[in-house]
Amino acid sequence: MAKPTAADRNLTWQAGGVSQAARRRLLGQRGCVLWLTGLSGSGKSTLATALEKRLIRQGRLAYVLDGDNIRHGLNADLGFKPADRVENLRRIGQVAALFADAGLIAITAFISPYRSTREAARSAAGPGRFLEVFCHAPLAVCEGRDTKGLYRRARAGELKDFTGIDAPYESPRSPDLLLDTANTSVAACVRRLEQLLRDRKIIRGRSPS
Amino acid sequence: MAKPTAADRNLTWQAGGVSQAARRRLLGQRGCVLWLTGLSGSGKSTLATALEKRLIRQGRLAYVLDGDNIRHGLNADLGFKPADRVENLRRIGQVAALFADAGLIAITAFISPYRSTREAARSAAGPGRFLEVFCHAPLAVCEGRDTKGLYRRARAGELKDFTGIDAPYESPRSPDLLLDTANTSVAACVRRLEQLLRDRKIIRGRSPS
Q1: Taking the complete model, does pTM exceed 0.80, yes or no?
Q2: Chain B residue with minimal CA distance to A21?
Q3: Which domains does chain A have, with CATH numbers?
């Protein structure tokens, strides 16, 4: 009897699981990672939450990963040292990839200042499954909002290595979408995010008027 | 103007996100963690995969977390030392809890030999969201199957601290379901798992004849 080839083994392995096509049929959407990156105060969490709510209302399955549900659970063992920050984002990238694999639209809202960690998240998600969205607003605008009071603390020296103050933010070179969040309303940003999902065939259906 | 109370703040926070009720309506099911525990060779992965497939065919959303998608991704940084094994299961418990929070039936298939780590996973999932399933088969039966050749390697001394050989397995004291996988067919086990999900109101609908 012939030895099984790699293709045979792969087929056997595939046969055991649920195919991506079956998940697409069930959910009427393709799984993906929508990765929001930008300075603190650039609107990532607000947009993530607004988009999630809108998609769920439309019968689409989305889930937000952000500091609220990651830092107190999965990454509760990590601090804010450079190595911990890298590991924080590495795990988030891997978890988001699992959500995408399950068929969900995983929306992540983290500053994620380094290109290398964002590229690692892209690799984890796999080809065609990672959309990088640059939430762009000038530092002065973000600092002016300062919803969490973090900039004030960073300026006072209470927070070290704060992105935009004493740590760098590496802007995406060719994001899948750039949102000018200083000059665009939340509603308009959400519409553009939805359009991106339609353009990339993650979701279907006509654009609302 | 009155200062906001804790309830006000909570309401504000809640208002931002998608409610569990909205997810239940969308998916027609409640999210939960179905945690399969038992010796290597006790049938955990086979049952997890068969149940996932069956639920998806019924239009229900399930996702299996197992060694294949966890050890090479999220937990690729961990080895097999005792501390690494604890951390491996801690993270799996946290990720499974996130999937349950998103509305999915997260099915985990890991030996998870210690009560303490299983209890930590239960806590992470939250009340009413964690179902512990003991896949029970005598060691001799599991070793006889030895589908991955691990027992042979453990007996040969090539694998250290192998559960059932030279490391303990702490049986669940009061599992939500005990499956006698040495004497029950895969199909019958899957039916009992489905019945458990119905009994706990995770899924609805009549039991199939």
Answers
A1: yes
A2: B56
A3: 28-138+168-199 (3.40.50.300)
